[in-house]
Amino acid sequence: MSGLPGSILEVLWSSLTEVLPEGGGDRVQLRTVEEMPRQASNRRYFRLHLDGFVCPSVVLMLLPEDASASEEADEGAEPTELPFVFVQRQLEGAGVRVPGILADRSREGFLLLEDLGVRHLLDARNAAPETATALMHQGVDALVEFQHRVWGMPDGGFAMAQGRSFQASLLMWELEHFREWLLEAGFGLTVGATERAILDAAFQQLVDYLTSQEVRLVHRDFQSTNLMPGKGGLVIIDFQDALMGPWIYDSVALLRDSYWPLDSEVLESMKRRYFNGIRDVAPCRDYGEFDVLFRMQTVQRKLKDAGRFVFIDRVKGNPKFLPYVSGTVDYVLEALCGLAGGAGLARLADLLVRARRPIP
Q1: Do residues 154 and 99 both lie within one domain?
Q2: Is 4 exposed, middle or buried (0-12, 13-18, 19+ CB in 10 A)?
Q3: Is position 286 within any domain?
Q4: What is the pLDDT along the chain (360 residues), one digit of tens a residue?
Q5: Which of 73, 86, 90, 198 could be stapled to 347 by a disulfide with Cβ–Cβ 3.0 to 4.6 Å?
Q6: Residue 264 belongs to what domain range?
């Protein structure tokens, strides 16, 4: 039925009836199944429309074969529990709004989740562009609340990361991802000794700076497509790759979202709104210091994103993210323009400008 494996269908019925009062399973009917649009993840999602159930629809997350592994590069101990389930339980316990798990059948290859609908924060903005500023305010406030709740835990969220962290080698891997997939595969640049030296110097400068910062739990992809309007505020999804990293990371993911460009005036306003909301729990108390850190993290994160978009096209056969490459590179150049970062970063900007071309 609609691409669902027979083995899943065999277990699905018992999963639905388990969350009903005794005898209620006789009333449940599976009316329709629709596969939801594929994103960058290897996970597949199906919306199940039901009659006689406690809610009219649920979402089935169909897990890939190696569901415990992060689809991003990762470092740390092998998780003993499916990261999505573990992190969801921890966040929910901390009072963070996340989708409810109706049935954990991860051993059989799927989860049943609360259905939050079809609209993300980005969809809400696209439907009513005049509300964009107010909606981004909601996103910033959701991030501030998330960080207050998680960073306010006794261990600052460390246990939630299950031993995983953004170490220097992982940050460097993400930058090499940019070299391999954007510069070489996307722009067709042959990285010779000269270009390699430029990249090595810039990458090392970025990694040294970022790893000198205090680490906190980061969602890793806190952006408009992972925030869904719900009762009582925004609901956070796609949190399974959370780990310890530079505390600035999630604010860059949100405010330099490749799908939601902000002009310079709005960006500055949002950065100050975020900084004022988080300053009592953040390691940084000076806005100028915060701004430099924000720009340095923007360079590292958005170089990785630009490369990732090409990777998803070339390796996963999904070209939907390619239109965002150019704007993402613009973010990097804008951040570099505001940094007095020395010759390494200046030469990186020059290399980007010279290498940039349409991606076939």
Answers
A1: no
A2: middle
A3: yes
A4: 456 666 666 666 666 666 655 444 556 777 888 888 877 677 889 888 888 777 788 898 998 876 555 555 555 556 678 999 999 999 999 999 999 998 898 888 889 899 998 899 999 999 999 999 999 999 999 999 999 999 988 887 888 888 889 999 999 999 999 999 999 999 999 999 999 999 999 999 999 999 999 999 999 999 999 999 988 899 999 999 999 999 999 999 999 999 999 999 999 999 999 999 999 999 998 999 999 999 999 999 999 999 999 999 999 999 999 999 999 999 999 999 988 766 789 999 999 999 999 988
A5: 198
A6: 131-355
Q: What is the dihedral of CA 129, 131, 134, 138, to 10 degrees?
A: -70
The pair of three-digit structure tokens given for residue 345, joined into one six-digit string: 């970063």
Under 8 Å between Cβ of 310 and 186: yes
Q: Which residue has the tokens 């989860």?
A: 111
Question: Which amino acid, 15?
Answer: S
Q: Are residues 173 and 304 in the same domain?
A: yes
Do 347 and 277 share a structural domain? yes
